[in-house]
């Protein structure tokens, strides 16, 4: 396990790798506002034990990657969507199996369209279609409790008070859990690492939401041409299960594995057996084109 800073196109990103560089590469992409720490190191090690070279990285304004002042992001959504290319280029990885969560799943879809030569396969977790669908049926909206989270956010903590910020992050995740339950002890351990590693947690929490879109990329899901696995919680309150079903229906030859009881979250330890096994099998069937 090694952590390092890489700079490509003048962008400084923090990355960490697990496993043997000679094994097929897997790139993990976090959701909005999320540092790479939300991919639990033990989860990464278990995936590496499947014979994969697992890399995770901090988005801009998260963890130890470059950071703008809170409220003043110096990048666009398109910049975030193309940072995986910078990571792979910096690590001299010619192509990777890409695993994206939530916003990271949207980034993964863009990557498969914009840079298909870099993508050996997609695994899309707790995310929604980023491209055009042939089925025009409206997908279900977020649960009211999550809508209230966004429309009436909790007051800011004292950003200089470590414990208060950890509590703020832990509480922010509570409404996104499913019937599997909210593992507060595990979430607190992750949030504590996030706070201790981050250059500016306030910027992490705020800046992704207000960044300009930048270049708009319009595409059809049917044009994604890499093997795709969709992992989606049956109790996802942000993107209900039909969002995952739509991805599997629209992307050619994609498959869907519902994760019973999971909400909108990084797969918790109770689901690691099925998630790691599923990604391992999926990536073993996918070969470089």
From TrEMBL:
Taxonomic superkingdom: Bacteria
InterPro entries, sorted: AB_hydrolase (IPR050471), AB_hydrolase_1 (IPR000073), AB_hydrolase_fold (IPR029058)
Gene Ontology molecular functions: triacylglycerol lipase activity
Xref: Pfam families: Abhydrolase_1 (PF00561)
Domain AB hydrolase-1: 24-264
Keywords: Hydrolase
GO biological process, one term: glycerolipid catabolic process
Protein name per the record: Alpha/beta hydrolase
């Amino acid at each position: 396990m090694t952590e390092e800073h890489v700079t490509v196109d003048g962008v400084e990103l923090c990355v960490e790798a697990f496993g043997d560089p000679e094994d097929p590469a897997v790139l993990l992409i976090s959701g909005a506002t999320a540092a790479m720490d939300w991919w639990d190191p033990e989860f990464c090690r278990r995936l590496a034990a499947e014979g994969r070279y697992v890399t995770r990285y901090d988005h801009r304004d998260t963890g130890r990657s470059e950071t703008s002042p809170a409220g003043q992001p110096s990048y666009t959504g398109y910049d975030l969507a193309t940072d995986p290319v910078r990571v792979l280029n910096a690590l001299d990885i010619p192509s990777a199996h890409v695993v994206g969560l939530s916003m990271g799943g949207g980034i993964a879809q863009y990557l498969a369209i914009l840079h298909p030569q870099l993508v050996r396969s997609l695994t899309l977790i707790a995310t929604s279609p980023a491209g055009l669908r042939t089925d025009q049926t409206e997908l279900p909206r977020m649960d009211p409790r999550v809508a209230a989270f966004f429309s009436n956010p909790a007051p800011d903590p004292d950003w200089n008070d470590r414990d208060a910020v950890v509590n703020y992050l832990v509480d922010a995740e509570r409404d996104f859990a499913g019937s599997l339950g909210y593992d507060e002890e595990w979430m607190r351990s992750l949030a504590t690492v996030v706070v201790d590693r981050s250059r500016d947690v306030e910027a992490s929490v705020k800046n992704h939401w207000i960044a300009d879109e930048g270049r708009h990329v319009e595409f059809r899901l049917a044009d994604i041409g890499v093997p795709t696995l969709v992992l989606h919680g049956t109790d996802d309150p942000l993107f209900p299960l039909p969002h995952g079903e739509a991805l599997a229906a629209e992307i050619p030859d994609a498959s869907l594995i519902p994760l019973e009881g999971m909400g909108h979250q990084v797969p918790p330890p109770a689901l690691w057996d099925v998630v790691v096994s599923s990604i391992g099998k999926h990536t073993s069937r996918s070969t470089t084109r």
